[in-house]
Amino acid sequence: MDIAVGSGNPVKRRAVERAYPEARVAAVAVDSGVSEQPVGHDETLTGAVTRAERVFGTGEYDFGVGIEGGVASFSNDAAVVGGEGDLYLVMWAAATDGTRVGHGAGPSFLLPDRIADRIHDGEELGPVMDDVLGTEDIAKNEGAAGVFTGGQVTRTDALQSAVTAALAPFHCDLY
């Protein structure tokens, strides 16, 4: 099986490789079509679907996979923009075979207030995390998920579950 993941981020490639170790995985950077910091479930999922569809068309692949991380509220996505409500790190994956599209979500993590406040003010999660932690490129390493869980769930782990869920409709006759 040949799978292309629509990102040059090594964490996203590893997530797909771990979800499907028998597959050959190519990483091809494509534009998500959404903002650098997707806000809300809809925008985050749209980014994942756009990446999956765009990367599928770049070569001869059985599947194109798109992965997108964002921030969202579970009570009301519109509240995120206004700075109200709890804010979570969310992740979505999409997979396509050129005909159908499957979707899957990874775990969600409540953002600490001092980080959420900066996101509400318009900053992006990755750079905020790097600033707070004194790191560089946290998104290409353990990610916020790894930090929040003390390494119990890394960004790769979280994204792997989203990818597995997105590809489930292609591997199960119940869909």
Keywords:
globular; alpha/beta; 7 helices; Maf protein; 175 residues
Describe the structure.
The protein is of the alpha/beta class. The protein is 39% helix and 19% strand. It has 7 helices and 6 strands, in the order βαβαβαβββαααα. 45% of the residues are buried. It has a single domain, classed as Maf protein (Alpha-Beta Complex), CATH 3.90.950.10. It has helices at 10-19, 41-56, 77-82, 113-120, 125-133, 143-148, 155-167; strands at 2-5, 24-27, 63-72, 88-96, 101-105, 109-110. α1 (10-19) crosses α7.
Helix and strand arrangement:
Blueprint (H helix, E strand, L loop, with lengths): L1 E4 L4 H10 L4 E4 L13 H16 L6 E10 L4 H6 L5 E9 L4 E5 L3 E2 L2 H8 L4 H9 L9 H6 L6 H13 L8
Parallel strand pairs: 1-2, 1-3
Antiparallel strand pairs: 3-4, 4-5, 4-6
Helix pairs in contact: 1-7
Give the gist of this structure:
By secondary structure, this protein is of the alpha/beta class.
At the third CATH level, what is the topology name?
A: Maf protein
Return the string of H and E elements.
EHEHEHEEEHHHH
Low-confidence stretches: none
Strands, count: 6
CATH class categorisation: Alpha Beta
Binned, the helix content reads: 25-40%
Percentage of β-strand residues: 15-25%
CATH architecture group name: Alpha-Beta Complex
Specify the biggest β-sheet.
Answer: 6 strands, mixed
Derived structural class: alpha/beta
**Ends distance:** 20 Å
Q: What value does the average pLDDT take?
A: 92
> Number of helical segments?
7
Can you tell me the number of structural domains? Answer: 1
Rg over CA atoms, rounded to whole Å, is 16 Å
* Tertiary shape: globular
